[in-house]
Design brief:
By secondary structure, chain A is an alpha/beta fold. Helix content of chain A is 37%, strand content 25%.
Chain lengths: 253, 253
């Protein structure tokens, strides 16, 4: 699928998702937003606020993917270590960023821009800022690594600013059909044959369980709209061959 | 934190989370359930249905963590390749599991246990079954890798069966306090000093934005209840030192 598209990895940094305290809300948002600009998300890693782990993971993934996005760990408290760890990963000093520093200092009352808040204006040397409409504290980019806030509404605002500035490929779109009352195991063989005919389209099969009936949704994903329409036509014929009705699109949730 | 506890990694396998189609519901459930039996979740990786990636990730993580749990990719369709990939990762044949095969064959009408469904009874040699109350298709364990379904209610049923059979450490618990109207940046310095005094307790600081007021929640996590109560007492004193009211527990959502 989308062999020509640049690839992305997301690092969700923070103990709160790993402890079960917080339901992640950033993966789905970024996965959807990145697909729209043709940068498929190929991996997510959720990692703790542990310096060694963050540094190792940043270096591993920035070599594997075209884009690495991080969320979390850029606030003022002791557990916010993402920014310093990204500097360490790139082997550059972690130092006041002049523009971020000026902006933040100006936004606080005299004396309120304390040491903790100054950490939010301290960045890897060479970083450029990622603006957002929600908070005066910016994210930043260094190399192919994009460091964003963990709070969903701040992260979303940063991605809104960032998204038109990224270089994506053809948009990745989805087409779907679903059927009620036909188990996955019945259409599996025919579906495998359809997948074999369209190797550049990702065909996924997802059983669902709803009050108005159980069934399966077939989702085709890719950049070749003509081939995807052909996949959905073949899936429809497969379902109808079992005497059932194929419905376009995903089942209503 | 919890240096003596065994560690866990979760692999969420499937294109549907990476494409943004599906909101993950398994991470939080497993993170919470594992903390209760003293097996802290230390990393999550969300990876696609790509054989090379699954095999590499299983081998990397089973060497790094005491337990590796996987969800997704054990159904009957062409995109369900987790089981075969785990066999490849362990370097063992992928073959019919006698007990799973017998159970599944018995549950279908004659002729309905087709090739696609037989794949769900095909497992790495040496695997032992993970039962569940929702479906006749079992998960399985091989070495320190536990392979479960991706559909949340089936995964949850498998974990319910599995959980009392795992060897955990002391339960990981949380204590919290929160304050409205005091920004993170004001308490950050004092909080860092508290963390320095209790290095074996994870202290997290999480800003929140609610209609009845913005504030910050401080969460202490660990196995040493006495130290955690001391942390919360110190946090309470810190907040009160700024003339604010510290409230026990997390803010209501």
């Amino acid at each position: 699928m989308a062999a020509g598209n640049p690839t992305a990895c997301l690092l969700v940094i923070g103990n709160e998702v790993l402890s079960g305290r917080t339901q992640d809300a950033n993966i789905k948002f970024l996965a959807t937003g990145l697909a729209q600009i043709g940068i498929p998300l190929r991996e997510v890693r959720v990692i703790p606020d542990v310096a060694e782990t963050i540094i190792k993971t940043v270096n591993e993934t920035r070599a594997m993917f075209d884009y690495v996005f991080t969320t979390g760990g850029i606030g003022p408290t002791h557990d916010d270590i993402t920014s310093a760890c990204v500097a360490a990963a790139f082997g550059v000093p972690w130092e006041p960023h002049p523009e971020a520093w000026t902006r933040m200092e100006r936004s606080y009352k005299p004396g309120d821009f304390n040491a903790a808040r100054q950490r939010m204006a301290t960045m890897p040397r060479g970083a450029t800022l990622i603006d957002n409409a929600m908070s005066v504290a910016p994210g930043f980019q260094i190399g192919n690594v994009y460091v964003m806030a963990g709070v969903p509404r701040v992260m979303q605002s940063m991605f809104e600013w960032l998204s038109p500035r990224l270089h994506g490929g053809p948009q990745i779109v989805q087409r779907a059909a679903h059927v009620i009352g036909l188990p996955e195991g019945v259409i599996a063989e025919g579906l495998g044959q359809i997948q074999a005919r369209y190797p550049h389209i990702d065909i996924g099969s997802y059983p669902f369980y709803r009050s108005n009936g159980n069934g399966v949704a077939i989702v085709a994903k890719g950049t070749d709209l003509v081939a995807m329409d052909a996949v959905i036509a073949d899936v429809t014929a497969l379902i109808e061959g079992f005497g059932r009705v194929a419905v376009a699109g995903e089942p209503e949730s």
